[in-house]
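Memo to structure team: turn this sequence into structure tokens by end of day. - J.P.
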Amino acid sequence: MKIAVMQPYLFPYIGYFQLIMSSDVFVTYDDVNFIKQGYINRNNILMNGVNQRFTVPVQNGSSNNLIKNITFQKNAWIQLSSATH
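Reply from structure team:
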């Protein structure tokens, strides 16, 4: 039996879905601390040939809070910024 464990991401990358498909049991590990600069509430998108990072604002977005206790802010606008890699 193959078991896979990953933290949740906002719009996960294709490898995340490949991992799900290749495992018999998939566990979303949200009982750990929120990663403030991670991809739980942000991601990148290509807009007009430019890589843009977008972030969905969260309430209680502190590294001292568990992922499962983080909520998206109601009526919040998505914030865009140029992603640098």
